[in-house]
Design goal:
membrane; transmembrane helix
């Protein structure tokens, strides 16, 4: 297997001068950061639109309970009370 430390040190010697040219006070996300943010915003917008459409299709009808003890559970055996 080839020696990876030699290629890593060679890459670092080429990248270190590039890093020294950057001013640490003026580093910005740039175009790539904007594109990533815009794609994430579009994805959230699409998910919200889809969720609203699916929630609009839900037909929830609450069941009417006639009597206070119809759904209560008795402590002995878990049987419903009459």
């Amino acid at each position: 297997m080839p020696d990876m430390s030699a290629s890593a040190s060679l890459a670092m010697t080429h990248l270190v001068p590039l890093a020294k040219e950057l001013d640490e006070d003026k580093v910005t996300p740039g175009v790539l950061g904007f594109i990533v943010f815009a794609v994430m915003a579009l994805a959230v917008w699409g998910l919200m639109k889809s969720m609203n459409r699916h929630m609009g299709r839900v037909n929830f009808v609450e069941s009417e309970e006639t009597g206070g003890e119809t759904g209560s559970v008795v402590a002995d055996g878990g049987k419903k009370s009459a």
